Amino acid sequence: MLGSGAARGFAHIGVIHALLAHGIVPDIVVGTSIGALVGGCYANDQLEELEAWARSLTLRRIIGYLDVRIGGSGLIGGGKLTRRLEEAMGTRAIEELPVRFAAIATEVRTGHEIWLTRGILSLAMRASYALPGLFPPVRLGGRWLVDGALVNPVPVTAARAFGARMVIAVNLDADRFARGATIASHGSDENDGLGMSLPGKPHNGLRGLFGAERAIKRQLFSQNGRPGFSTVMVEAFNIMQDRLTRMRLAGDPPDVHITPQIGHIGWLDFHRAAEAIAAGAAATERALEPIADIIAGLS
Q1: Which of 4, 33, 122, 128 is catalytic?
Q2: What is the pTM of this model?
Q3: Per-residue model confidence as pLDDT tens digits over 129-149
Q4: Distance between CA atoms of 82 and 126, rounded to whole angstroms?
Q5: d(CA 224, CA 285)
């Protein structure tokens, strides 16, 4: 069961490799967001291809995938990533996979938790990682869907519903200590000048029109200590996800909880795939003893 976490999700690759290396072969795979992407690639026997692509990412290549658009329901159109995914997956249906697979998504208007268990695999994966504000929602079966982490970041419940006798959960945010505390007293100080947060004067005319996309790309990432658009969006999403994960895992804990130590890797640090993969493998090695004990008990 593979949780959400954007770039940290490459740790799932290391987790799966380590499990397989020790003869532990998942027969039910449920993923949310990046977990759905990695889990879908594993279920479709394309994990090695995904790993090679992930390890090849650089900052320049990542920016090349950002087809920023003005207007619409997402800052990033996602067309370049979609084409790459469709080229790799084709029209393979979830029902055709050799293992049972589900991707978790959220319906926009109702907030329903949607378990995508049939239909085209690549579309299910796209819907599950459609982070609101960054990627546009995906229409599947008459429903507009976005990132499943809004409702179920670590989908233990789905894995149990599908009949899993042992649920191994991979939580990508468990090691981010000292987050979510309460600051009981805070206020402005002498360094907080009035008007310092006001936006600059907009550029009018053709110059402003043609330079708008370049300006948006520059503002995607943080600059001079001020959080960029993507940082604000992702961190707000991260805070919400962290609180929701704690509540859901408290109500339905997994049998084994794998927690890669990747708090130092940012949500958009896709160029650090090698670090994330290694951390996932290391965390799995630490969890092998309890996994073996549970398997022995089941048998």
Answers
A1: 33
A2: 0.81
A3: 998 877 889 999 999 999 999
A4: 8
A5: 40
